[in-house]
Write a structure and sequence with these properties.
Oligomer: single chain
Distance between the termini: 68 Å
Shape: elongated
Number of helices: 4
Strand content: 15-25%
Largest sheet: 4 strands, mixed
Number of strands: 12
Radius of gyration: 28 Å
Strand order of the largest sheet: 7-10-11-12
Helix content: 10-25%
Structural class: alpha+beta
Amino acid sequence: MSQVVIENPIINSPFDEPTRHFRFADAGITNEEVDGRRISSYFVPIARPKKTKGAAQLALPGTEWTQDRIEENKLVNDIIASTDGTAALKPILRPYDTIGSTRYVDFDTTWPVYATKAQKCHISHVVADTDSWEQKMAEALEDMPEVIRYVKNHNLSFTIPYTLNGEEKNYIPDFIACIDDDHSPDDLLNLIVEVTGEKKKDKAAKVATARTLWVPAINNHSGFGRWTFIEVADPWDAQNAIRKGISI
């Protein structure tokens, strides 16, 4: 069989299940289109014969890419068969310190601080970037009966990677709160709270990444509880915004 030239390759979406592929025949690939996903497989390589002294090495073109050299990737195909074909974001976890904690947070600061209530926050003070916004946000969280505990994300090493203008950066959200949203005491909602003042391009990129990529990915993992994200533009109205945002 002569070598087939594919002039118009099939390009399937990277986000959806493949819908077309070229059929493989006994003598190799064809230009015949077939609907659906091709089963995962690989070609078994043919070991080249050893050279004998003074003998030329013979090459047999086309012998390694034929149907009889294909072996199925059974494990991969079993995994594919066990899903419904829906694409799902999944997180890439850190190989170290995968689960953070407030237990070992200890630092000094010269920034303004707000003394927290011990029954609501494991860390004694909220470090503020402004004279009033973070302080008011902390007060609002402490006064909400739905908030079981919260923390200002300072020196916790909790970051969300994002990209701005092709440059990789790390976003540090403002607060994390555990909310009782009527599921169960063992199934609290983890709420990321971002306090937003002036609208900036980098803030929009941070918020979009957290809301549309990080939160869906961590929820699809299903090993770290339930998560959601809210952007608060007015800390003095934070309680209403949070209750409305998560439908308490």
